[in-house]
Amino acid sequence: MAYTDDPLTHKSNLAYIRTAMNEPILEKDHELELARRWKEKGDEKALEDLIRPYMRLVIAAASKFKHYGLPMGDLIQEGNIGLMQAAERFEPERELRFSTYASWWIRSAIQDYILRNWSIVRTGTTSAQKSLFFNLRRLRARIERANGFGGLTDEGRDKIANELNVKVKDVEDMEARMNGGDSSLNMVISEDGTEEFQNFISDDRPNPEDVVIGYKDAKTRSQWLNDALGQLSDREQKIIRDRHLQYETVTLEELGKELGISKERVRQLEARAMEKLKDSLEPHSGDVQNMF
Known about the structure:
Blueprint: H1 7-21, H2 28-41, H3 44-51, H4 55-64, H5 72-89, H6 98-117, H7 127-147, H8 154-164, H9 168-180, H10 208-229, H11 234-244, H12 252-259, H13 263-281, H14 285-288
Helix pairs in contact: 2-3, 4-5, 4-6, 5-6, 7-8, 7-9, 8-9, 10-13, 11-13, 12-13
């Protein structure tokens, strides 16, 4: 559904469109001269004279995308940004018409704006998805006219997938997205108007009480472990920390080289230190059984 402007905005848009459409088109030589003055000398008056006649390209492009449900004024503004980008990047020495070059930038800027704002859920993150998003309606309409009935069949989805070089699943997903639209969590779903959609969404996260208890338990277990480690020698503490309390475990061989002992001796010291820890933590065995 197309967006409908309020009367004042609509009047303002019409005035802008009339002004833009009344601007005369530039001759190629004049166009290139203005582009060179802007490119080489930073002449802002030349830039203004260059882009003003081609605001009509922005309006034409924006009109083609007005059925995506976004304000026409916003589409024109985004198209103007694309026009400015084209002027910034245009290379007059290549002897191309600025209008041809600018058309791509204008269309790209408008399409990017639509993809960012058409839905609160991000749409079209790859070039194939963007192509599908902007061509699905046209291809679907063409196929439905040929078949003489509404609705898209599996055969029609296959044709679209082949033409746009995408998967049939991508066509199905995009069709569902474009037909569905966004729904508010505050959408009323009960007949009496008292129940909202969000009231029936379950929250699998722990409740605040469980979070606090878990946090306190973790601090308590950490204190027990630190107290137990304090009863080990410095070498035993290093072995336990490197072997059991780090994200990346240090091997017995690496520890042996660092401590100047064999890896078998490291293994023996590790086993003895673990026994000491278990003895120290025995009074709390029910709470720390999964600590190591």
